[in-house]
Amino acid sequence: MTTTSASRAIDARDLTKTYKGGVHALNGLSFAVAPGTIFALLGPNGAGKSTTVKILTTLSQPTSGTATVAGHDVGKHPDQVRRAIGSVAQRSGVDRQATGRENLTLQGELYGLRGRDLTVRVNDLLDRFGLTAAADRSARTYSGGMERRLAIAMGLVHRPQVLFLDEPTSGLDPEIRADMWAEIARLAREEGLTILLTTHSMDEADQLAQRLAIVDQGRIVVEGTPDQLKGELRGDALQIQLGAPAPNGEVHAALDRVPGLREITLDGATLRARADNAATAVPPLLSALDAAGAPVASVTIARPSLDDVYLRYAGRAYRAAGTEGAAQ
Amino acid sequence: MATTLDHTWFMSRRHLRALVRQPAYIGITIVQPVVWLFLFGSLFKRIVEIPGFGAGNYIEFLTPGVIVMSALFSNGWSGMTIIEDIDAGVMDRFLVTPASRGSIMNGLLVQQAVIDVIQALIMVGIAIAMGARFAGGIVGVIVTIVAGILLGLSFSSFSNALAPLLRTRESVIGIVQFVTLPATFLSGAVMQPSLAPGWIQTIARYNPVNWAVLAGREALGSNPDWSFIGIRLLALLILAVACTTLSTLTFRAYQRAV
Ligand SMILES: Nc1ncnc2c1ncn2[C@@H]1O[C@H](COP(=O)(O)OP(=O)(O)OP(=O)(O)O)[C@@H](O)[C@H]1O
Ligand SMILES: [Mg+2]
Question: Which residues contact B255 (CB under 8 A, 6 or more apart)?
Answer without folding.
Answer: A59, B95
